[in-house]
Structures are given as C-alpha cells and as structure tokens.
Amino acid sequence: MSQENVEVVRRTLEAVSDRDAELLSSYIAAEMEWEPAGPAAVEGVVYRGRVEVTGAMAELWTTWEVFRFEETQVRDLGESILWLGHVHVKGSASHLELDQEFANHVQVRDGKIVRAKAFLAWQEALDAAGLVE
What we know:
Layout (H helix, E strand, L loop, with lengths): L2 H15 L3 H7 E8 L3 H4 L4 E2 H15 E13 L4 E11 L5 E13 L2 E8 L2 H7 L5
Parallel strand pairs: 1-6
Antiparallel strand pairs: 1-2, 3-4, 4-5, 5-6
C-alpha cells in the first residue's frame, strides 16, 4: 500500500462526513463491498456495488443530521489500511448526540476502495486485522 491509498481512505471518509455522494462515488469501485457497523452488522448486512453503498449512505444521512468522522490514527498494513478514530452523530429526529469509537478496515485497488468493514471498537478492528495490542 502507499500514502496514496491512505489518502483515498481519508478523502472517502471526508466525503461521507460532508454528505457528498458524488465525491464518495468517485472513490469507491463499482464492485465495492461494505460491511457496516452497528445494527446492520448484527444482521450481517453487506452492501455490494457503488449504487447500494451510496444508497445506504444516503439513508444514514437521512437518519443522522450530523455524521462526522475524526481520525486518531491510520495504519498501513500493506494489503489494507486500518483507520482508527471516532464518529460523531446527531439524530435527525431525536437530536440525540453520540461520540463513538470507530474503525474501518479498508482495501484499496487502483485508487478505489474495493472492500470496507466498519467496527464500533478499535480492539475489534485490530483483532480482525490480526494485530495484537
């Protein structure tokens, strides 16, 4: 992996935070697979393809008035990128605010994200990536 791939991950998360579907779409591969965290993860939901991924993001943006990522650290794992940080959300209807530990384990190929799995705990992401802390 390279610094360019780290930047693709960062810019993709910025696009999500900025609710920029067009920019988000430009960073994800047509065949992307995304495993979200939270209730969808419990149900085993996997979004496949650019249309499903951007559609799921649009639903999240409807549910959450604020949906912002804040990076703590990024690890280049050679074959993938592990992004560790927090997500800050505020409910559109409830106005409930949450600041949650968050991680993404991402594979980038040819400047596009091809696979991403989200986690609500850093340790869970570290374990999934085979890292011992």
